[in-house]
Design a protein that fits this description.
This protein folds into two domains: 153 residues, Rossmann fold, CATH 3.40.50; 142 residues, no CATH class. The chain starts with 16 loop residues before the first helix and ends with a helix. The chain is globular, with a radius of gyration of 22 Å. The relative contact order is 0.11. The chain has 16 helices and five strands. With 320 residues, the chain is α/β, with parallel strands linked by helices. The protein is 54% helix and 8% strand.
């Protein structure tokens, strides 16, 4: 099978600088149950639109805050999209795990199992989470008791908007630092993801089925999570070790070297250099390791890595 399949979403790199410079706020809401009632559908749509408008208001905090938003109620609701269940899962879970820098959950009419799954994944990522519910509607103690979740109630639309603004302002530093963290993780896990993908796609379909079952996964699940470094980064250490071991990939050496952490500016210029020079993820990861090891060595702390040309020179020196 090797060489017969391309890496999924290869044309949609998660670490693309053109998209990921702006933080993403994911706005979740119940959809399936709302689709059963025009009144509930109208209620969800109105309130999600209000949240998105608040986030994207150019006057927000004097125009100093800029965010992307993703709201399934706007882009892929069952009343406006004919996408398959698998496509909806892949799209939304990919965004929650690989791109979201904060999550706002609108809980209406008892919530939903879909938003519950999105909430759990956001908690796993450790991103800021705001759980909103109308005044008088009961909130699960599982949610209100979770220290990672800020649970708030509202009565009027204006209260909904002001609560969203307070949440963003309070968590501004962490939300705005999200793209930097994602870029660092994308580089850190790039070579591991590439190696796991190469090993995985070299297996026959029957061997893939056996391997996935041994790791408590399915082939489709593995395909999806191996589609981007940031999705691999959400696996637990035990999952990575177990899956890597099943493919005879030694995952330990990807994380054990002593290095000096690169700045966000350094990583951005590295990604630009990768795109300009056509380096593979494996080559880029090796170059990143080389740079961090060099920076951690006495006497070379003035190593300049602020532009793609700087990285190209370092790459050429490493290859000699």
């Amino acid at each position: 099978m090797k060489g017969e399949r391309e890496l999924p979403f290869a044309s949609d790199k998660v670490h693309s600088l053109s998209d990921d410079d702006l933080p993403l706020i994911y706005v979740a809401s119940p959809l399936t149950r709302a689709n059963q009632s025009p009144k509930q559908r109208q209620s969800v749509t109105f309130q999600v639109d209000r949240i998105v408008a608040t986030i994207q208001d150019p006057r927000f905090d004097g125009g100093t805050l800029q965010f992307r938003t993703h709201a399934p109620a706007v882009l892929s609701a069952p009343w406006s999209s004919d996408a398959s269940q698998w496509d909806i899962y892949r799209q939304n879970i990919r965004l929650v795990l690989a791109e979201a820098d904060a999550m706002i959950i609108l809980s209406l009419h008892g919530g939903s199992s879909g938003t519950g799954q999105e909430l759990e994944l956001a908690c796993r990522r450790g991103i800021p989470i705001l759980h909103l519910s109308p005044e008088g509607e009961s909130v699960s103690r599982q949610v209100s008791g979770n220290p990672l979740i800020k649970a708030e109630t509202y009565e009027l639309p204006d209260e909904l908007a002001s609560t969203v603004r307070r949440f963003i302002q309070k968590n501004r530093r962490k939300i705005e630092g999200g793209p930097r963290n994602r870029l660092n993780l994308s580089i850190l896990y790039g070579a591991l993801q590439s190696d796991l993908w190469d090993k995985w796609t070299s297996l026959t379909q029957s061997d893939q089925a056996v391997t996935a079952e041994q790791c408590a996964m399915t082939p489709d699940y593995v395909d999806h999570y191996l589609s981007a470094p940031l999705l691999v980064a959400t696996w637990s250490i035990s999952q990575i070790i177990r899956f890597g071991t099943s493919l005879n990939v030694d995952v330990a050496h990807y994380f054990t070297e002593k290095r000096s952490r690169l700045s966000y500016r350094h990583v951005k210029s590295l990604v630009s250099a990768q795109e300009e020079n056509g380096w593979s993820d494996r080559q880029t990861e090796r170059l990143r390791q080389h740079a961090e090891e060099a920076l951690a060595t006495d006497g070379v702390r003035r190593l300049i890595l602020s532009s793609p040309a700087d990285w190209q020179r370092l790459f050429e020196g490493m290859e000699r």
